[in-house]
Amino acid sequence: MATRRQFVITLGGAVVAMGARAARGQQGAEAPGATMEGDGYIPVRRLPRPAAAKRITALERDAVERMLSCPCPCTLDVFTCRTSMPCGFSPRLHADVVQLANGGYSGDEILAAFEQAYGEKILMAPHKQGFNWVGWIAPFAAVGGGALAVGALIRQWGRRAAERRMAASPVPIDASDDEMARLEAAIRNDDS
Amino acid sequence: MILLGELSLWVALLMAIWSATVSFAGGGMRRVDLVASGERAMYASCAFVALSSIGLWTALITSDFSLRFVASYTSANLPTVYKFSAFWGGQAGSMLFWCLILSLYSALTLAANRKRNRELMPYVTGTLATILIFFLGTTAFSANPYARLDWIPPDGTGLNPQLQNPGMAFHPPNLYLGYVATSIPFAFAIAALVTRRLDAEWLAAVRRWSLVSWLFLTIGITMGMWWAYVELGWGGYWAWDPVENASLLPWLTGTAFLHSIMIQEKRGMLRKWNVTLVVATFLLSILGTFITRSGVIESVHSFAQSPVGSYFASFLIVAIIVTAFLVATRLRDLEARAELESMVSREAAFLYNNVVLVGIAFSVLWGTLFPIISEAVRGSKITVGPPFFNTVNIPLGLLLLALTGIGPLIAWRRASVANLKRQFAAPVAGGVFLGAALFALGMRDGYALVSYTLAGFVFTTISQEFVKGVNARRRMHDEAVPVAFVRLIARNRRRYGGYIVHFGVVVLFAAFAGLAFKKEYDLSLTPGASFSAVDPYNRTWTFTSQGVSRYEELNRQVTAVVLEAKRAGMSPTLIKSEKRQHVDSRGQPTFEPSTEVGILESLRQDVYLVLHGVSGDDRETAEIRITFNPLVWWVWYGGIIMALGGLIVMWPQATRGGSKRRAEGGYVVVMQPSERRKADAAEPPVEAGV
Q1: Are the C-beta atoms of A11 and B294 separated by less than 8 Å?
Q2: What would the pLDDT profile of B603-627 be if each residue is shown by its tens digit?
Q3: Which among A25, A32, A76 is the nearest to B239, CB-wise?
Q4: Which residues of A touch B236 (CB under 8 A)?
């Protein structure tokens, strides 16, 4: 019961959150795109490592930028945004990534630095930990569960179909009249 | 004309209200006069919505800036074609456009069923009219395209530069035609549930419209991919954006339905499941519209935020409650008339195909909504982007591709081991051969290798089916190969049209896998400077800057860079990329600068040129990016092939004796053993088809 209640509460919370977001969205309708060039930018700076040498190549740096979400409403990653739109954010985030890469920080360290500044939202995909596992596993669980359910259903249907076939065509019994009489008598005795 | 258009909108709403009321009443009271009145009101509503649409188009073409909608989405110097397509470029106009398509579809449905499905039609009309009331009501009260401004501006804001693309003329209408077409099967499902006439009749009516929806969604999604590829700023042809995901959801469940409907037609099974899929497809269309228009989820494609979100949410909830109630109270009427007998049968393969299709739909929806769920549970925001969707959906997609090849190889009811060996030998060999050949040639990307191996498997499956069919016709009718091929498809459109769709899927997957090998180069080029780059096929290209030019066009100021591209064995070709600053009729900038990419297209790969900007004291140094995108054109070809297959499946087929329903389906072929094989043919004739 507790599990079901938790599920209902979670679902209810999600619906309420969606409603609240919709309402917030409508309130914000007066000033569309207000955050586009706002002050959502947070500088991500670190002192260069002593005798710092670049630890990542330009391609790896691009890969890091593909893992960072642009804070503008474009929903794109920093790399794609800065090389296509670009908005007021992605070039500045790119500059920060370049500065960190030149300062001797690895890809993971750069991502961690951005996460520390902006929170997990800056990552293009959530970490595989805690509640996020629900997000990562649910699709596979749904398909796996569905496949198992279908398999069980087909097995059950197959059994029923076989039973119907058996009932429709009685199997001939290889027994003499004497043996059949004894069998019927035994069944009668059993019934009584 | 504008006043007439505005009045027509309100009259259409009144007509729809009347249509819904008297249709449901007529159905319940069995009053033919009321039913007829409801249908006439629906035709009238359609006429008034058309009149209202003409009014808005007139206002757009004549630049009547007294209307807020016209002033917000057009300008005097906007090319006429974009003034026309601005109709669906904004929230209010696109809502009216939705009403126009829905009313036209409704009128068509009523006209096509004047003498058919008469028991169902009052409820079909009533349901369609109810949906129309919702859309007309939302348009009239919340997103009215005829809303006036307090003053008349000298010029309008203009259309967003990204929307000034030929894709604007085709992509949204096709997508809307697909979305709205899901309403008709939904209306038939509701009617069948209400009247408890859940036999094969309603399915026959529903199948054609489901195909219409599937076809337009396929065309719309493919065009959208092309548009997002040629127009910079949307993250390439597929970025797993919530709005892109929203268009995929009804397509996935609609595809699942088109497969599972065959099992119901053939075996009388999956009746509950099919009703669920029809309802889910419609609800997902509405959910997609809600996502696009509510502002609940951030998207690069969404409309400006407006209050229509709460209307859509309410409609969605009511629709879910009503259909859930109807299904729950009709479960006994939806009992299957037969049951599956074997795990190794085509029915079972179709069921697994349904599990994967619906599973992918679930994973897409789940990923789209998970940020909201996570925020509600944990209180912290997260982003769910392409890394998540690719991780989850690539394996599921490959599983689906495998099932695309497996399904047609397995016999209906129960497949014998001998049958499986005979059917699978060539396709498995084909797939393994292709995979091994690509590995030997140096391909090491795991997903790409699996993708091409499965593509080879499915392609051989399809080829094998065509070869068998053509050979059978040649033996029976003594026809030449091309004639036998054409007649094979023409006489059995559903089956072979389906195979053509599957071929399109193979082409799509092959193209998607090509993306794993793309190469990118960032560079700065002064006029006359050259740069050498190696493409994914290890060929060396030389790009030479022809300089930066600046000029004005109709409604924009352009900065362009032209590169000369050279490669051994190819004559030099020019590629141009532009930075555009759109201006209004007074020369004032209207939007942020946009970028037009330059594309050198070929079947093997695209050379994709992007001008980031110009630098240097003389502003003559071009900052550019060159990308080699392998096999991109095959994405569009895959979509075209799928649409072509869908058209063949849809094309009406004359019936010739036998069971009408099955003949209409046209998917059952009784293949007699050939004369040569008759002597040793121990097996009964093989029933096959999709």
Answers
A1: no
A2: 999 999 999 889 888 888 999 999 9
A3: A76
A4: 80
A136: which chain B residues are within 8 Å (Cβ-Cβ)?
388, 391-392
The backbone torsions φ and ψ at residue B182, rounded to the nearest 5 degrees and listed phi first, read: -70, -15
Q: How far apart are CA B278 and CA B238, in angstroms?
A: 26
Quote the pLDDT of residue B663: 42
What are the pLDDT digits (tens) for B470-514?
Answer: 999 999 999 999 999 999 999 999 999 999 999 999 999 999 999
Q: Using the beta-carbon criterion (under 8 Å), do A14 and B384 form an inter-chain contact?
A: no
Concatenating the DSSP letter of every residue in B586-628 gives TS-B-S--EEE-EEE--SSEEEEEEEEEEESTTS-EEEEEEEE
Provide the token pair at A70. Answer: 């642009």
What's the pLDDT tens digit per position in B513-563? 999 999 999 899 999 999 999 999 999 999 999 999 999 888 889 999 999
Give dist(CA B661, CA B302) in Å, integer: 43
Lowest mean pLDDT of A113-117, B10-14, B231-235, B434-438, name the range. Answer: B231-235
Residues 6+ apart with CB under 8 A from B266: B412, B662, B665, B667, B668
pLDDT for B582 equals 86
Give the type of residue at A6.
Q
Both tokens assigned to B114: 């004047």
DSSP H or E stretch at residue B327: helix B308-329
3-state DSSP assignment of residue B581: strand
Stretch (H or E) spanning B521: strand B519-525
Q: Where are the beta strands (DSSP E) in B416-515?
A: none
Q: Domains of chain B by range and CATH? A: 1-159 (1.20.120), 519-631 (2.60.98), 652-690 (no CATH)
Nearest-by-Cβ selection for A14 from B235, B376, B392: B376
pLDDT of residue B233: 72
Q: B441, B495, B428, B489: which is closest to B669 by C-alpha?
A: B495
* Interchain CB contact of B593 with A (< 8 Å): no
What is the average pLDDT value for chain B, to the nearest integer?
89
Q: Does ipTM come in above 0.90?
A: no
The verdict on B355 touching A (C-beta cutoff 8 Å) is yes
Contact B43, B105 (CB under 8 A): no
Both tokens assigned to A189: 């005795």
For residue A84, give the nearest of B232, B295, B396 by CB distance.
B232
Lowest model confidence (mean pLDDT) among A124-128, A181-185, B323-327: A181-185
> Which member of A25, A146, A150 has the closest CB to residue B305?
A25
Residues of chain A positioned with their CB less than 8 A from the CB of B348: 150, 154
Distance CA A75, CA B250 (A): 22
Sign of CA dihedral B442, B447, B452, B457: positive
Q: What percent of chain B has pLDDT over 90?
A: 68
Residue B228 touches chain A, beta carbons under 8 Å: no
Chain A residues inside the 8 Å CB shell of B377: 10, 13-14, 131
pLDDT digits (tens, 9 = 90+) for B86-138: 999 888 999 999 999 999 999 999 999 998 888 999 999 999 999 999 999 99
Q: What is the percentage of chain A residues whose pLDDT exceeds 90? A: 36
Parallel, antiparallel, or unpaired: how do β-strands B686-688 and B556-567 relate?
unpaired
Please give the pLDDT value at position B654.
64
For every residue of B159-213, DSSP letters joined together read --GGG-SHHHHHHHHHHHHHHHHTHHHHHHHHHHHHHT--SHHHHHHHHHHHHHH
A contact residues 62-91, partner B, Cβ 8 Å cutoff: 62, 67, 69, 73-77, 80, 83-85
